[in-house]
Design goal:
This protein has one domain. 37% of the residues lie in helices and 22% in strands. A 7-stranded mixed sheet has the order 1-2-3-4-7-8-9, with helices on both faces. Strands 5-6 form a two-stranded antiparallel sheet. The protein is globular, with a radius of gyration of 17 Å.
Length: 199
């Protein structure tokens, strides 16, 4: 149910900007993987869009959610927040590559965060760059295993990320400086990409 809700939320964000989100036909989906939408304006495809829900239903999240003040919870494992983001990117790239292997159009991945107690857009930045960025702007390379792992190659195939918190009014835009579609993205979103977070 969360997936349908997330897709509807992202569709609204995109269509209020003058785009039309079109689902792939059943025949296209039967032939293989597809992203959720091809997005057009005036009948011309502008980009492909995949929506992923980030759900906080991990045992660590549950333990931390129910914990009382000054109580200790111990679970020994990697932080699931970053694995969720990395996994979403990996799966989305397979879907993009199935319909857009030559990168003729931008690939846009929307991540809808349902774990707003523990997660925020900083998790996406950490996975993409390997860096923890503090409030004062200092950067520490402490998440390198994500940025240098499988995400490194996959992330280069996503041109723009939308991080959507359902309780917030505006999504966060994050784009790759290495994208071949920077000018196109600025044109279709009507924005100066210097004003959008880059990695």
């Amino acid at each position: 149910m969360k997936n349908e809700e997330a897709e509807g939320l992202v569709q609204q964000v995109i269509e209020t900007r003058g785009f039309k989100c079109e689902r792939f036909s059943k025949a296209e989906r039967v032939r293989g993987k597809t992203p959720d939408f091809r997005v057009s304006r005036d009948g011309i495809i502008q980009f492909y869009l995949e929506v992923k829900s980030l759900l906080g239903e991990d045992p660590l999240d549950v333990a931390l959610f129910d914990i009382e003040p000054f109580q200790i919870a111990t679970i020994l494992r990697n932080d699931p927040r970053f694995n969720r983001v990395a996994g979403a990117i990996h799966k989305a790239v397979k879907q993009f590559d199935a319909v857009n292997p030559d990168r003729s159009h931008p690939n846009v991945l929307a991540l809808v965060n349902y774990d707003n107690i523990l997660s925020d857009v900083g998790d996406l930045i950490a996975v993409l760059t390997g860096k923890f960025i503090s409030e004062d702007g200092t950067e520490d390379l402490i998440y390198g295993k994500y940025a240098r792992g499988r995400v490194s190659a996959d992330a280069q195939r996503v041109d723009l990320y939308l991080w959507v918190d359902p309780d917030e009014d505006k999504p966060h835009f994050v784009y790759s400086e290495r994208t071949v579609h920077a000018a196109r993205l600025a044109e279709v979103f009507g924005a100066d990409l210097d004003a959008i977070r880059r990695y």
